[in-house]
Amino acid sequence: GKHQWRCSDVVFLCPDQSTCEQWVKAISNQITLLTNRPKRLLVYINPIGGKKQGKWIYDQKVAPLFHKACVSTDVIVTERANHAKEHLQTEADLDKYDGLVCVGGDGMFSEIVHGLVTRTQNDNKVDLNDPGAELARPSLRIGIIPAGSTDCICFSTVGTNDPVTSALHIIVGDSQPMDVCSVHHNNSFLRFSLSLLGYGFYGDVLSDSERKRWLGPARYDLAGVKTFLNHNYYEGTVSFLPAEDDVSSPRDKLQCRSGMCLPENTKQLTSTLLMPFSDRRDGWKVINGKFMAVNAACMSCACPRSPKGLSPAAHLADGTVDLILVRKCSRIDFFRHLLRHTNKDDQFDHVFVEVHRVKKFDFQPRNSETVSLEDLSEKSTFTPVCPGPCTCNCGSAHSSWTCDGEILPHIAIQVSVQCQLVHLFARGIEETQEQQQFVFEDL
Ligand SMILES: CCCCCCCCCCCCC/C=C/[C@@H](O)[C@H](COP(=O)(O)O)NC(=O)CCCCC
Ligand SMILES: Nc1ncnc2c1ncn2[C@@H]1O[C@H](COP(=O)(O)OP(=O)(O)O)[C@@H](O)[C@H]1O
Ligand SMILES: [Ca+2]
Prior knowledge:
The chain has helices spanning about 15-35, 55-70, 85-90, 105-125, 150-160, 165-170, 200-210, 220-230, 265-270, 330-340, 375-380, 435-440, and strands at about 40-45, 70-75, 100-105, 140-145, 175-185, 190-195, 195-200, 235-240, 285-295, 320-325, 355-365, 400-405, 405, 415-425. By secondary structure, the protein is of the alpha+beta class. About 45% of the residues are buried.
């Protein structure tokens, strides 16, 4: 139930020892022919992610399954932030492995993607600082064993945050391509975004929650309430290149499900994504405004807090990102909007919310081309800063961007989608026929 997989034993009875041996041999031969199945994995465990259970989860729930399935592993328990990223970038002998495993949350997964993708670009002499560069795709798939605070990438690609289910998807060698957003500041690469890139509300929640890391996952709830009460808005300009209107829409209610986002279904999308930066202003739209939040969701961002996600119809691997603009509104309206993330109501059905499916976008804060993290850290990043003494929320302050739970050092950013850059050991969210029927009836 609920997308959870479990192991099951099947007992074969046979009349004699030699038949039994024949069967064992035949089954082993058949399994060897399944080339999708990984045989050697490199596992990174973040021991401090989420409720600090990563090592226990791996040892108790995952390692015994890998052992049963004859998957051999090298395990690294990280000793500090960026340990896994640096190891992947410079040291790891990747030819030895059929895949990587991340035991941790979205931040840890982001580290591993950064390490692997950077290594691949270095090997292929691709310049990450060039926003128009065609990035080389890593050959190794990555499995996620959820052991973080939000684990939205696991939830959005598997349908549940369950270590046993994820381990079984790895063992059977599932493969799910995934879009990645690259984020630049001028011509300098900042980061990849895999789930939520958020300015305003979520940026403020993340800035505040980092100071409360000792609280574990509950830090987001406390910071969320505080940020909600602050009710800040921020001015800026969003420019974006919309995806073709006839392909799909963030409001079409067609949720991304297993088998939808595969390379053969989305081939035509990749070619349009490689236009050099200078040629791209045709067809761009520009929106100026005062925003409570500017969110970019590369996937639905479904998680236990929001089971349908920030953008329920976003696709995992279609080469687009859903850009959600929440304009300045009253506290009660913003509350209604947030509440709709937790139930079946449509969070985009408000006059102050608009959502666009885009291939690229830029954000420019008002009056602040040069604001950097150093400037921000001198002030409170979630308290508006007025030119003179002021108690009002005048919107002259800057927020910061959260990128998969990490704060970006710049506010003016350029974002473009790298279609199907990485592959996961997953197959997308599976749905029974009755569940699909239910979606169509809703439509
Ligand atoms: C009145 C009730 C309001 C409830 C609002 C709930 C809205 C939840 C939307 C959640 C979107 C989550 C997008 C995921 C982002 C993660 O990548 C990031 C880092 O994850 P991890 O490393 O595993 O901790 N997590 C967040 O940004 C947390 C956002 C929480 C906001 C309340
Ligand atoms: N051993 C470690 N000590 C401290 N920080 C670490 C360690 N290993 C990884 N990290 C960092 O911890 C951050 C949060 O990890 P994550 O697994 O996403 O947990 P959470 O979901 O609780 O934020 C990541 O940004 C990662 O870089
Ligand atoms: Ca997408």
